[in-house]
Design brief:
Layout: H1 5-21, H2 37-51, E1 54-60, E2 69-74, E3 78-80, E4 84-85, E5 94-103, E6 107-108, H3 116-122, E7 123-133, H4 145-150, E8 155-160, E9 176-181, E10 184-190, H5 198-209, E11 215-216, E12 221-226, E13 231-232, E14 237-243, E15 247-253
Parallel strand pairs: 1-12, 3-8, 4-15
Antiparallel strand pairs: 1-2, 5-7, 5-12, 5-13, 6-11, 7-8, 9-10, 9-14, 14-15
Helix pairs in contact: 1-2
C-alpha cells in the first residue's frame, strides 16, 4: 500500500528535525516507515522540496543491468574546488571517489524518453569528485535500504573538482584511479564503479529519477556512483584521489 500523504509528511519532518537539531533518529516513526522504493522516493522528494532548490544529483546502480537509484542534492552540501570541510558537518565521514558530469543544457521531463545521444549532447564537462556519505540515523547502515534511500541515499556532501571539458576522451569504465588516505594507498583500481556505463545512469535520471523535479537542468552536477566503495575516515584525515587524464582531487575533513 502506498504511504499516505500524512505518513510521508511525518517521515520528512522527522528527517528534517534530525538535520536541524543534530539529533539522530533511532528509526523513522512506526507509522511512517517506507515499505518499498515508491515510499522511499515519496519521503525523499518531500524532504528535498522542504530544503529548497535542487542543484545536483547522485545516481548509481549495483550492477550494469540493475535498476538505478537516485537522490537530489542541494547547494548547502555541494562544494566546488574545496580542499577542506569541517568535520562538524557530519556524524560519520564515509568517503567515496566518484566521477561527476555537469550539464550545459536542460533535459526537462517529457513524455518521449531522452535518447543516449541527446544525453551526451547535454554534457558540458566531467570532474573528479568526492562524496561524503553520512546519515540522519543513530548508526550508519542500521536501517533497511528503503529508509536509507529516503534519507537522501546516505548523502552528506559532494565535493566537485576541476573540470575536464574534453569529457568524450574519458572512458569511465576503464578509467584508472588511486585513492590515498593520509599518504597511504588504500585503493588502486580500473573503473571500480559497479554500475558500469555512467551514461546509462544519466539517461535514467533524466527520464525517471529527476522527473518529480521537472528533469535535469543546465548547471546541474550529477555524481555517478562510487569507484572505490565507502572508506570511513576520522576527522583530520586527508584524502587524495587521482584519475589519470581526468584529474586529481584532495580533501581534508577537520
Amino acid at each position: 500500500m502506498t504511504m499516505t500523504a500524512e505518513a510521508v509528511s511525518q517521515a520528512a519532518a522527522a528527517l528534517l528535525a534530525a538535520r536541524r537539531d543534530n539529533r539522530p533518529l533511532d528509526a523513522l516513526p512506526a507509522a511512517a516507515q517506507p515499505a518499498d522504493k515508491a515510499d522511499a522516493y515519496a519521503i525523499q522528494t518531500e524532504v528535498a522540496r522542504r530544503i529548497g532548490p535542487v542543484t545536483a544529483w547522485k545516481v548509481g546502480a549495483s550492477a550494469p543491468d540493475a535498476e538505478p537509484s537516485s537522490a537530489p542534492i542541494h547547494a548547502e552540501t555541494l562544494f566546488f574546488d574545496s580542499e577542506t570541510l569541517p568535520a562538524g558537518m557530519f556524524r560519520v565521514i564515509g568517503i567515496e571517489a566518484e566521477i561527476v558530469y555537469r550539464l550545459k543544457s536542460d533535459l526537462p521531463a517529457r513524455d518521449e524518453p531522452w535518447t543516449r545521444d541527446e544525453v551526451l549532447a547535454a554534457i558540458g564537462s566531467i570532474h573528479p569528485a568526492f562524496e561524503i556519505c553520512d546519515t540522519r540515523f543513530a548508526s550508519y547502515g542500521s536501517q533497511g535500504p528503503f529508509a536509507s534511500l529516503a534519507d537522501q541515499a546516505n548523502h552528506g556532501a559532494l565535493i566537485v573538482g576541476a573540470a575536464t571539458a574534453d569529457w568524450r576522451a574519458i572512458d569511465p569504465v576503464n578509467q584508472p584511479l588511486t585513492l590515498d588516505i593520509d599518504g597511504e594507498r588504500r585503493i588502486e583500481v580500473i573503473g571500480g564503479n559497479k554500475a558500469g556505463d555512467p551514461i546509462r545512469l544519466l539517461a535514467w535520471l533524466a527520464n525517471t529519477g529527476a522527473r518529480p523535479f521537472g528533469g535535469l537542468h543546465a548547471g546541474d552536477s550529477v555524481t555517478t556512483g562510487s569507484c572505490t566503495g565507502t572508506l570511513f575516515i576520522q576527522p583530520g584525515s586527508r584524502a587524495v584521489a587521482d584519475f589519470p587524464g581526468l584529474g586529481r582531487i584532495a580533501l581534508t575533513v577537520a
